[in-house]
C-alpha cells in the first residue's frame, strides 16, 4: 500500500487499528490487537506511542516529519507531507514529528478513531470493543449518548454508549502532553467553500471525479442497486469504467418489491445481471444481533441489509456505497424542509433540523411518559452542541446533517455492516467530490439540479429512468420479516431483560404480546428497535459495566 506515484485501494475490509499514546501499557495494546483479530500486528512502537494495524501502513511525509496511516472508503494517492494533507486525502494516522506523537482523523470523519484515557496514556482503536475488553475496570453507561440513540437513532458529537470512550472528531488531532490528553481541531476546511459553480460546471466536475475514483480502484466491484439515485449513479460510473461485476438488490422489508423493481431496468440498461436478496424469517433474530454488533450498537434500524452483508463476506470483490451522496447533491432531500434552511435565525434552523430528522419516527415515545421528556431533552442538547459550530455558515444545514446523521449514523453501515466484511468504496466522501458539490451555487441545487447535471454528464438515459425520487410507492401488501413471529419474539425477550424493562409504553407492550399483529406506528417501531438495541448492548457488556441505574437518566 506504499507504492509511490499511483493510487492504491484498500484491503479485504475496513482497516482494523489500535494503539496508544503517552506512558502506556504495551501489553494492553497487544490485548487490544488480539481482540481486533489475528491479522493485527504492531507496525510502530517507541517510548510514547504504539500503533497496530491489520495491513501495511500508508506512509507520508518529508525529511522533517511524517506519519503512518490508514484509509477507509477511498483510494489512497501518495504525496501528502503534513497530517492536514493526509487527512484531506482521506486518511487517519499517527504523526511522527521528532519526539512528538499525535493521532489524527480524516477530513470526512468516516473512519472511526475511538479513544479513552487511563493514567498518563490514551488508548485508541477503530472499534469500541477492544477498548472495553482491555480496560482494567468497569465502565459507565453514557445516558446522553443513549438518549440520542433512542430519540434520533444515533449518538451525536463524540459520544459513544460508554461514558469513558469518545470518538475523534473529523480533521482533529489527539496527543498526550504532561500526562494529559490534548485535543486540537483546526477550522474544518469544508466550512468555508466558496459557492461559484453553476449546475453544468458542477455536474461535469462531479462526473469526472466519480470516473477518476473508479479508475483508481482499478478492479471489478459489486454494485448494490436499489431504486434510488445514489446507487445507480455509482453503477453508471463503474459500468462506464468497465469495472461493474454485477448488481445486487436487497429487499428493504417494507411490504413490497418497489426498490428491486426500480433497479431492474437500470441493471438491464447497463448490461448487468441483477441478483436479488431477501431475509428468511427464521434467520432474522441472528441477523438482527449481527447487525447490532457490526454497527457497535450505535445506529437504530432493523436487519434488512444483513443478507447483503453476509453475501459480500463470501466474495473477493470490493463493494460500492453511496454514503453522503444524497447529503451533498440533494437540495430537496426529505430532511431539508423549509424551516431547516432559515438563514434569518440559525438556532431555529438547527432546532428544525433536529425535528426533521425524526419525521419517520420518534423512538422516545416508546418509553413511559415520565422518561420521554428527559430523553428528548438530552438528545436535543447533544445535537445542538454539534450544530452550534455551523450556525450562520452558508451550508449550515448540510454540514450539520453530515456531521450528525451521516458520520455518526448511516456511515456505520459502510464501515461496519459492510466494511467489516468487504472493502467498501464510497466516492462521495472524498474531499474533491464534497468540495465540488459545496461549491455549487444555491441555484445549481434547486430542484435537485445537481443530480440531473451529474447524470447528464455521466449517463443521461440512466438518470431519466424512474427512481424512488419520482415513482409512487404502492401500499404495503407483502409479509414483513421485521414483524414476523421470530423477530417479535426476540424483541419481546430482549425488552424484558434490561435496564428499561417495565418502562415501555403500554401500547408497545400490548403489540408485542398480540397475535395476529397489525401495523405499528413509526414512533413505536423505532422505539422498539432502540430499546432492543440498548438491551442487546447491556446484555453483551453487563459484566464490564458499573451498575446501570435508570434514575440517572431522569436526574
Automatic annotation (TrEMBL):
- Where's the Asparagine synthetase domain? 218-312
Q: Which Pfam families match?
A: Asn_synthase
> According to the lineage, what is the superkingdom?
Bacteria
InterPro entries on file: Asn_synthase, Ntn_hydrolases_N, Rossmann-like_a/b/a_fold
Q: What is this protein called?
A: Asparagine synthase-related protein
Query: Which organism does this sequence originate in?
Result: Nocardioides potassii
Q: What is the lineage of its organism?
A: Bacteria, Bacillati, Actinomycetota, Actinomycetes, Propionibacteriales
